[in-house]
Queue: 3 jobs
Job 1
Amino acid sequence: MNESSVTPKEKSCDRRCDSCQQRKTCSDSTAINIASRMSRIKHKIPVGSGKGGTGKSTIAANLAVTLKRRGYRVGLLDADITGPDIPRLLGIEDIRLHSGP
């Protein structure tokens, strides 16, 4: 979507569709799709810090592995734009990502 086609409502969109007053009339199908998929995830545990080098990726990877070993279904998203550490930490650098249903 280019900047000239963005309406004022869309400019202020914070992608929190579940609490948005415009959710029933929203035209942002990407935000609606993400919100729908995220709503099916029962528990979300964000790991964050305002500083680099604090061990966020290590904590997130260890937490995911521990929960998986205890029988939980686990997904792990690494939003690190400077270099994803999760594949290295889990020893899966050479595995290709495939999408599924």
Note: The chain has two domains: 3-39, 44-101.
Job 2
Amino acid sequence: MRLWADRGCRIVHFVLYGLLAMGPIAGLVTLFAGGDRLSFFGLGSILSPWVKDKAFAHSAKEIQEMLANALVILAIFHASAALVHHFYFKDRTLKRMLRDVFDAES
């Protein structure tokens, strides 16, 4: 794989994992900023550590939506890149990613 493609792959993976981690954290901040409790399947709940602030809750919700949209866009880009490697470059990138699926067919 070319050096720029390898670096791009590593950056995309790093950003994907970062977005996966930041999404739930932003969701908790949004929930608590609205003054809501965090419920655990009816077994208990955690009270909001902050006073209800509508402006902050709105800002936190906007940030959470932006993170979610970025995650979806980057995931689509990532899947498209895997398909380009498989059908255009005809290399083993997709087969390497889905090793168990392709080994079962052989």
Note: The first helix runs from residue 3 to 33.
Job 3
Amino acid sequence: MKTSNKFGIVATLFATIFLSNIWNPVYSQNFEFTSFTVIESIIPNGVGRSRILSSNEKRDYKEFTTTKSAEDNSRNKSDRDEIRVHNYEETKLLNFFNIAGIRFQNIAANDAIVNSKVTSMLNEGWGTCQYCGWS
């Protein structure tokens, strides 16, 4: 009796896994990813430029990528004008330093602006990911 029960359980488990893989189609997933860059100047006397930058144009990295090898170590000859983006958002931030030194109020103000940008993007439907390792 015990042997047939084990066989029955294994056979049922195998059938369940097999059938679930047949009747649950695998959907291909398409992802859209975006990012923005925060540049915070640390140049003394308030001379630097701090900004949030994000592109409004798309680029395909493959168009500007070459593969190096021992046999072919030639230079990547992508045209810089084709890579360059002219349509982007630029948000002004305050510099960390002024003539008197570090300005903690400026750091707090910049944090508030960056948090506002993230909140706005989340409300628009963007998600966040720390590690994007789907299996």
Note: The chain has a mean pLDDT of 79.
